[in-house]
Amino acid sequence: MKLPFVRFFRLLLLGQGLMLLWACSSTNVVNLEGSDSTSFVDLRASFPVSKQDENERIKIRFTEASGEFNQDIPDGKIVDFENFQLTGPDQVSAMTDMTTASISYGRVGESLRKNFFMSAFAGVSRTNFEIDMESESGLTTGVRNRSFEVYADLGVYHLFTPYLTAGLEAAFSRNLSLSGITEWGAIAKFRPSRHMEIIGGYRWFKYDYFTTDYDSGIIVELNGPFIGLDLSF
């Protein structure tokens, strides 16, 4: 069984936790969670690297996540993000939209035990992060950020029938400012034809945005159902 990225995933998870702990300890971080409205889109396509090994593939993935927030700021709590500085009690409204496009190399269909298999990919991604925030007291701010990141994803699945698969997935990305996604999901795949799967499930999604000097940041947490398409050639 060829699992070339298992060690990479272990190092990525450990390094990500340590870096975020350090960044958050020295950063004015705005946490946005519990979105009032969340939507996800997930489109994937993969191509074999060689005819001799159909499991060795290049994967292209496009995801979109958006949400709206209304968050109360408790009395006495200070929110300090660049020119967005307020002290509670107050309320912050925010709208965010994120798109990520990635290209990665890895393997699919690696058998773990009977009817269980996994996939592992690593590559690069491009994330477009946009957010607008407004407080009840009248302060406004926004972020428009485009960045390249190191990207990796991992999935473990169970084959119920030749047409139905379900499992768990995770994806991670980070750039030099420690900004990036952390994504966990439960997924089901229905295969109506050899080259196409309809995918859907539930996703827990977090995006950490930090300024290049690590002076301030925004952490956006979204969760909800998603649907998409997975094409294999």
Primary descriptors:
single chain; 233 residues; mainly beta; Lipocalin; 9-stranded mixed β-barrel; two-stranded antiparallel sheet; 1 helix; elongated
How are the SSEs ordered, and which strands pair?
Layout: H1 6-25, E1 28-32, E2 37-50, E3 53-73, E4 78-81, E5 84-87, E6 90-113, E7 116-135, E8 140-161, E9 164-174, E10 180-193, E11 196-210, E12 216-232
Parallel strand pairs: 1-12, 2-12
Antiparallel strand pairs: 2-3, 3-6, 4-5, 6-7, 7-8, 8-9, 9-10, 10-11, 11-12
Structure explained in plain terms:
Helices cover 9% and strands 73% of the residues. The protein has a single domain, classed as Lipocalin, CATH 2.40.128. The strands form two sheets. A nine-stranded mixed beta barrel has the order 2-3-6-7-8-9-10-11-12. The protein has 233 residues and is mainly beta. The longest helix is centred in the N-terminal third of the chain and has 20 residues, at 6-25. It starts with 5 loop residues before the first helix and ends with a strand.
